[in-house]
């Protein structure tokens, strides 16, 4: 307040009005700058949130490091959720069990995310796959980082190495 009184005494009433106008204008500019910074930060935060990606460490040559590994035909698909977190529950008819640590029936339900950033994958009904995965909350899961392959596209040397029970131990 002392500053205002000095200006009023030195410059007169007109200078006082100009000074007050400039102060209000500067405050408005500060608010506009704050709003721009807030908008930029919001956009950056949202961009980073959708910048996640799937990173697989190592490429498995069989499902022996997984909780289960089977050969089966996808006989049904049930979509769940909405993008980007949508999932599929695949109903699979099991033809062969390569590895498991618990009893399995011959018709299984296996969950998988669809979105690539969640290491998702899509399986085609009617096609035969080797599917490897893990158990979470008593549900079977798989993803693109595990050994899940179309059986017809697996090279012969990998097909010979799929059975985790009859492998030589070194």
From TrEMBL:
GO CC annotation terms, alphabetical: extracellular matrix; extracellular space
Annotated localization: Secreted
Keyword Ion transport: no
Molecular function in Gene Ontology: metal ion binding; metalloendopeptidase inhibitor activity; protease binding
Cysteine disulfide partners in this protein: 54-119, 56-145
Binding of Zn(2+), residues: 54
UniProt KW Disulfide bond keyword: yes
Entry keyword set: Disulfide bond, Metal-binding, Secreted, Zinc
Stretches of the chain forming a coiled coil according to its record: none
GO biological process: negative regulation of membrane protein ectodomain proteolysis
One matching Pfam family: TIMP
The name this protein goes by in its record: NTR domain-containing protein
Source organism of this protein record: Magallana gigas (Pacific oyster)
